[in-house]
Amino acid sequence: MRELTWLFDLDNTLHDASHAIFPAINLNMNAYIAQVFSDEGSASDDAAVNAARVAYWQRYGATLLGMVNHHQVRPEDFLREAHRFDDLPTMIRAERGLARLLRRLPGRKILLTNAPRRYSHEVLRHLGLHRHFAKHVPIEAMRVHGRLRPKPSKQMLRKLLAREGIRPRRCVLVEDTVGHLKGARELGMATVLVTQYLASDSSKGAAMGGRATSPFRKRPIYVDVKVKSVGQLFRQMHRLR
Ligand SMILES: [Mg+2]
């Protein structure tokens, strides 16, 4: 049997981004979007800005793409401004034992995150997990024909599989965002849903757009394995075969 390749999401999969990081990102994004709207002479009040941020996230899977497509912002500017933190390490919360889990999990691990390189690298280092990943694919690296194609782009996933020489059936996507798992499954990949950081209250859910954050009591049909935490993955692995 050929070796498995694991594609791990970062935010709300390997750590609790809803605790402090997403609220800070949303404030940063709102400030940036308000500035862009005001420069354009459009309404830039909280309601207009929130509505745009959520709508772009729902439509494109990343607020960034909406701002690039509709407002011609430079991706690097938007990503830099959205990920400014006073003290990132103090904002990170995660379960213990993930390094041990990743060490025990057979196969190659790739970090696949719609977050930018600098931020995701810093979070991974702080969690002490960087050495367990053979490769790090941040949003800047998710380009197809020169255009940004973050998750859930199937073009991007296909390109990644081809470049790495991975057969979809030997590849597992581990994620908290069900929309991303759906696309992966359509390509024939195995899928694991991680639920513990999904917001149970609507205030957190609304923060990242609402779509992906409603808790799933039942397992969607395109999800092979549902776990509360990545720490439970090892025990549930047999269900992926
Ligand atoms: Mg996530």
The outline comes out as globular
In the residues, how many domains can be counted? 2
Taken as a percent bin, the fraction of beta residues is 5-15%
Bound molecules: magnesium ion
User: What order do the strands of the largest sheet run in, or round the barrel if closed?
Assistant: 3-2-1-6-7-8
The largest pleated sheet is described as: 6 strands, parallel
Let me know the average pLDDT.
91
The radius of gyration is 17 Å
Identify the CATH class of the largest domain: Alpha Beta
Q: Find the CATH superfamily of the largest domain.
A: HAD superfamily/HAD-like
Total helices: the number is: 11
Count all strands and give the number: 8
Order of helices and strands: EHHHHHHEHEEEHEHEHEH
CATH architecture of the largest domain: 3-Layer(aba) Sandwich
Question: N- to C-terminal separation?
Answer: 11 Å
Helix content: 40-55%
CATH fold descriptor of the largest domain: Rossmann fold
User: Given the helix and strand composition, which structural class is it?
Assistant: alpha/beta
Low-confidence stretches: 201-213
Descriptive report:
It is a single chain. This protein has 11 helices and 8 strands. A 6-stranded parallel sheet has the order 3-2-1-6-7-8, covered by helices on one side. Strands 4-5 form a two-stranded antiparallel ribbon. The protein has 2 domains: 5-17 and 92-240, 3-Layer(aba) Sandwich (Rossmann fold); 21-88. Helix 1 (21-40) packs across helix 2 (46-60). 43% of the residues lie in helices and 12% in strands. The protein has 241 residues and is α/β, with parallel strands linked by helices. The structure holds magnesium ion (MG). The site of magnesium ion (MG) has 6 residues, from loops.
